Amino acid sequence: MKNEKSGLDEAVSVSSNAAHVISGMVKTGKAVSGAAKGAAVGGPYGAVAGAVWGARKHIGTIAIVVIVILLLPVLFILMLPSIIFGSLFGGSADPNTEPIMNNNAAIIENTNEIAFAINQILGEGIDDVEQRIADDFSQTGGDNYEIVNPYADDLVSNTNAFIGQYCAAKGEDWENISLADLEQTLRAEVGDLYTFSRTSETRTIPDDPETEADESGTEIWYIYTIVYQGEAHFADEIFHLTDEQKELAEDYAQNLSLFLGDGMFQSASGTVIPSLGSVRFTDGAVEVVYFNQYDERYANEPYGTDNIGGYGCGPTSMSIVVSSLTGDIVDPIEMAEWSYKNGYWCSKSGSYHALIPAAAKAWGLPVEGCTASEPQRIVDALGEGKLVVALMTKGHFTSSGHFIVLRGVENEQILVADPASTSRSQKAWDLSIILNEASKNAAAGGPFWIIG
Questions:
Q1: What DSSP state is assigned to residue 173?
Q2: Judgement on whether residues 294 and 177 belong to the same structural domain of the protein
Q3: Of residues 249 and 105, which shows the higher confidence score?
Q4: C-alpha span between 32 and 328 (Å, rounded)
Q5: What gap in Å lies between CA 198 and CA 148, rounded to an integer?
Q6: 189/73 same-domain check
Q7: Do residues 427 and 363 touch, judged by C-beta distance below 8 A?
Q8: Do 125 and 56 share a structural domain?
Q9: Is residue 298 within 8 Å of residue 308, measured between CB atoms?
Q10: What local confidence, expressed as pLDDT, does residue 419 receive?
Q11: Same-domain check for residues 228 and 376
Q12: Which is more confident, 312 or 41?
């Protein structure tokens, strides 16, 4: 008895053809982002629905609904190859592994696992560069040395960029995309993740008060500063991307943010406004220095290869916090430059969530992460004169993702400093709105960070 193709098999086959059409669009990058927004070929839902419609003669109404649900992830994966790490196609992972399907929790878990693995390898890179520093010092004839490690508290983990570059390097070799392969690729280059700079100085040796001997004198010290190589270096030297692949990698990273980031994609569209001058809010427990990312002084200034007006809510929020709590006026241009140099800028997406605690620590401010299930902590902190950075998603404050600053409490409502809107900054908000619209998948301890 010969095997006959079932209606389900045909539906899968038709949808696979549709998926390959979409995979061709992946090569154009931007078209995929358009599809993600429903602007091309009816979006992924439309593509799969079309595939199922082609098999409508062979399957019943209920089966059509089921297949629509089951086949959506096929296009998700082709648009975001990183999700293949969940082994929908089996790949180089265990072929018996269950597909991710349209399971947001599983996708987030996989993304977190990838981020953890990357952090671990970046930590190994720190160990490697410290050993290279020790070897270098042994050749200097100096008396002693010290290491300046800007990443001691927060490793630079540009997860989206790594995933985008890795997948772009693989091209259409989907079956061999896996976390294990990514780890192997990065570990092979662990000695190239960081480099270092070296200076020297003469230091005076103080007398030892516990001895009578004169131990004063001088020593030659070498100061080593660890330097993170950065995304451009990885694209060229680790993943060996062509110019076309580099553009594709950026689009993959943007798509990953669009679909999975829940606040990662912080693009904003607004109009440059006249200079606001020196704006202060004094109606909370602490006087707040206000900056706006659309201010003509900052909007068109660079944030990486983006600009502050379109993508700078993170640095602008931290400019507000640092300037208000330290007395050191740090404008959005300076904060954006610091964020970029320290690896917290995310191309075409805004800022990695880790920017918030990292910048607070860099300026000597205590910082604690807080969840939406702890409203009293937020209210108490604001009453004590602390500030709270919040990562918001679609709602009253943004259509995608957006950092704002909670700056006080008035009549049981929350005062904010919204770096994209002076009008929203001049009204009080119900705490329930802020809690409900805060990111559900924030990293780095968020979606709230209590600072001060």
A1: -
A2: no
A3: 249
A4: 43
A5: 10
A6: no
A7: no
A8: no
A9: yes
A10: 97
A11: no
A12: 312
Quote the number of domains for the chain: 3
82: confidence class by pLDDT, cuts 50, 70, 90? very low
- Mean of the per-residue pLDDT values for the chain? 77
What pTM, to 2 d.p., does this model score?
A: 0.57
Same domain, 172 and 35: no
Nearest to 164 by CA among 353, 346, 363: 346
Does residue 273 lie within any of the structural domains?
Answer: no
CB distance 102 to 76 below 8 Å: yes
Phi/psi of residue 243, nearest 5 degrees? -60, -40
Q: What is the pLDDT of residues 389-433, one digit of tens each?
A: 999 988 899 887 899 999 999 999 999 999 999 999 999 999 999
Residue 99 per-residue DSSP state: P
Q: Which residues contact 266 (CB under 8 A, 6 or more apart)?
A: 311, 313, 314, 349, 350, 351, 398, 400, 401, 402, 403
SS3 call for 187: helix
Which residues have C-beta within 8 Å of that of residue 211, sequence separation ≥ 6?
none
Domain span at 413: 279-451
Dihedral class, residue 407 (left if φ above 0, else alpha if ψ from -120 to 50, else beta):
alpha
Report the distance separating Cα 47 and Cα 77, nearest Å: 13
Residue 95 lies in a domain: no
pLDDT tens by residue, 340-352: 988 888 777 888 8
- What is the rounded CA–CA span in Å between residue 47 and residue 39? 12
| The pair of three-digit structure tokens given for residue 373, joined into one six-digit string | 């299930």
Instruction: Give percent above pLDDT 90 in the chain.
Output: 45
Angle between the 43-54 and 61-79 helix axes, to the nearest 10 degrees? 130
pLDDT at 21: 40
Residues 330 and 210 in one domain: no
Instruction: Band the pLDDT of 256: cuts 50, 70, 90.
Output: low
Residue 316 sits in a domain whose CATH number is 3.90.70.10
